[in-house]
Amino acid sequence: MTMRQKFVISSFILCAIILLLSAFSMTWLWLFAAVLPVILLGVYDMHQTKHSLLRLYPVLGHFRYLLESVRPEIQQYFVELDSNGTPISREFRSLIYQRAKGDRDTRPFGTIFDVNRSGYEWVNHSLQPIDNHDTDPRVHIGGPDCEKPYLASALNISAMSYGSLSRNAIRALNKGAQIGGFAHNTGEGSMSPYHLEFGGDIIWQIGTGYFGCRTDEGRFCPTLFEENASKEVVKMIEIKLSQGAKPGHGGILPASKVTEEISKIRNVPMGKDVISPAAHTAFSSPVGLLEFVRKLRSLSGGKPVGFKLCIGRRDQFLSICKAMIETGITPDFITVDGGEGGTGAAPTEMTNSVGTPLRDALIFVNSALIGVGLRSKVKIIASGKMFSAFHMLRSLALGADAVNSARGFMLSLGCIQARACNTDHCPTGIATQNPERNKALVVSDKSQRVANFHHESVKNLMELIGAAGLESLSQLRPKHINRRVQGTEVKSYAELYPALDEDCLLDPATIPEDWAEDWTEANAKAW
Asked: What parts of the chain have a pLDDT lower than 50?
């Protein structure tokens, strides 16, 4: 029984008891007069559309907002940093909420950071800043063999499957993408009707389960792939090799959870466990991966095809680079997912201690592509805890062409980080399949918040670009970002992460010493 149902039943019983007792004493009518406003507030909460939490927890939900309003203000200035130095404080959560709602997002009393702390980062500004009016920068994704390139936004929705998220959450994300003109990644759970309902641009992710394009035995099915990839809303195809939240870990959907709807969406049989292997069965080598890229590009009618991975062994990514050189086949894009990614479907050890963090992975992938002379042919998309425009700027300075965000868009939907994603009891109706809970999320309201968050984030990104005296994202370089290493020692990203020389990995005489062993072990024909 949901809290809404409990509220309705308890209110009815309470009113009935009070009215019954009032026949013996008028005092009970005064009690009824005191209780009635609370009941009316609960009725209003259940029917308003702005707060999913209040729709699910009438009256009680107000206590959360009350506690937030009276918490010590010093808490807003306490900033916890993750292993990459990414702020994960309440302050950034509040920032996303405000931008999503269209509220003022300015902050009094200066920076929330201790600027003298090791790890503090900032962008160098120019004394001749540029008033940049381009609030919708686009990234051309599509290599020389791509017939239908895509002009992507600088910020897009990262992979989150239907099943992990509720149908209304998927609807709101896709409608927000349609309003704002940016892309929505399906996640590996395939395209559901809720991804397609509003016509927002789709990046169709193909995982090891080949959901939506699989045979009854779980193998890749070219016919089904071609049928789905030909949809107009599908703009790009992404092959998922691994994800930062659970790299090297497959998955299982128990037969008891395979509903008729999920069976149809994922093209899986009823009554059987659905297995997502840890590795792909359509290919087993770097060359095989690139041949699969070429195959999907052809079957999709020439749309951009790339792959997503969390960097593990360096020699294995370099094996893919060697395969690009041998075959002449290049992906149109590579999505680099940081090991700090989140999920409710992985063991704690996988989440916390496996996979290269985004910053290190991004630097490595960008450098590797430069070193083999292929950087101009392949776009890089960065994914991993993007909360603010500065987080985006930082990844772009390190080599990304665009960024994806999952948490940022979840927070824009109203996520309160209750960490109940894996319990089916999400208090905001976002990460649940409980129909009573997910219908509390009002698509018309939340989709606009999704669009608002995107617009404000990109607008602020371009303001940072202009403040640095730059006219476009393409002019951003590592030298524009500084970090306090320790004490008074400050270095730019260019000093901290020196770039490889173009083509240096192709000549044994110019291979950097710290790359030599991995490059030697790399094999285009085997991982």
From this structure: 71-88
